[in-house]
Known about the structure:
mainly alpha, 3 domains, 17 helices
Amino acid sequence: MxxxxxNGFIGHSALIIGFAACLFAALGLVAATTTHNPRLLRAxxxxxxxxxxxxVLAITVMVRALVxxxxxxxxxxxxxxxxxxxxxxxxxxxxxxxxxxxxxxxxLAIYTAVIMRRYRHRMNDPIVAWALVVMFVVTAFFFxxxxxxxxxxxxAGTPDFSRCCKGPxxxxxxxxxxxxxxxxxxxGYVGFTVPFAFAIAALVTGRVGEGxxxxxxxxxxxxxxxxxxxxILGGWWSYEVLGWGGVWAWDPVExxxxxxxxxxxxxxxxxxxxxxxxxxxxxxLSLLVATFSLxxxxxxxxxxxxxxxxHAFSDSTIGPxxxxxFGVVVAVSLGLxxxxxxxxxxxxxxxxPVSREGAFLAxxxxxxxxxxxxxxxxxxPLIVEAKDDRKIAVGSPFFDTMAQPIGLVLxxxxxxxxxxxxxxxxxxxLRDRLFWxxxxxxxxxxxxxxxxxxxxxxxxxxxLAGFAAGSALRQLVLxxxxxxxxxxxxxxxxxxxxxxxxxxxxxxxxxxNSYTRSxxxxxAKGETIEFxxxxxxx
Length: 538
């Protein structure tokens, strides 16, 4: 068994080694791009693996400290307890700020090692080398956070069990999703570092054509998938823990995860226009910068303690460091885009707004507008408090009012865009491709009215959802006729399957938000009440 204080020493040592390894790796790659020295590249790989070992060792030591109740560490006193069940004692690793930064660091080191391994034979390629430089610098920043403002291995005195050692927040001790939701959400957050790194590398090297997009798109899809799953699991967790059917309340921390999802979704669509037509180069780079920047801002909102939220479990001094990192990312990225402006001119142009690229552009404008509205509503109370020293709240009514029309138009675009060809669509082609999807929308609307649905907005949502689902199903049916079940694979038809999932969520949200009935009652034990056609007994 490790001696008292050894966990702290080993944890600090692992973080210092990892931090130094990242710096040496980044500097080695910069030198290798000019000297083309193969020995430097081999050394960089060694430093990269050493950084991963440091991150793995640090979080392993923290797990051991929590399992063995090493009260010599302040973090263990903060989230540990003799009474906490084994599962929640393990998940306490990421239940507070210091441990969550360790988790972020571990995932970031893994992503960096995977990229280094995948491109080990192309590390002399400047775009790969600079992408890894960016990833090592970002990893070094999180090693710095773990060593400084969020030191999880800080020593503590003899614990006063009457005031500490009570275990994690109670909301983090009553559902198994605490084991899955944070790591999966962080896989999405951290995963966007990879496409961001390749975007910066393209700007630094001046290779801003379409060549860097293939790998970037794949990693963006990977990160987007995990972020989507994390958000869904978060809604499920809220439904189970917070009670009475609430899956989304426009909470600031919920919004913090939704913002990069919106800009990431916009990028996944618009990158197809650049690949096909060589357009939207500046826009796509800006979307990647925005998505990565919003993950940093989301961490600030989640972990700095500046917002009041049922999902935020910290109050620390990390805020200035995260805001500083956010500012550096935005300033450097915009500076590089301005520097390469002459090479970012698009060779193509939109021939007609009634085309697939025109629909994707409209889609991007709406997603970006959606993100701006949510960002404004989330940070506006912070701005007012900083300026006037008064607290205000921007709640669900604002977000619902703004989100509803944007969501309806997006449903319409989901129906129309898959049927549009590139460059220009004729009226005859649109009639042929949208006839059956339109009837699906009409049939869905008629069914909703028949079962008693009322209200203009929800009925419109149901009709548009049927329209969009019909369009996606038409695409999938045609693909399976041509290629069998192999037609369900691939980029386009995989996107149609995702569309069906989004449509299902949209229908559920429209129904729950429009037809939910709520009331407040004071009920004595054994008393029975009736509400909304149901009988409840306490």
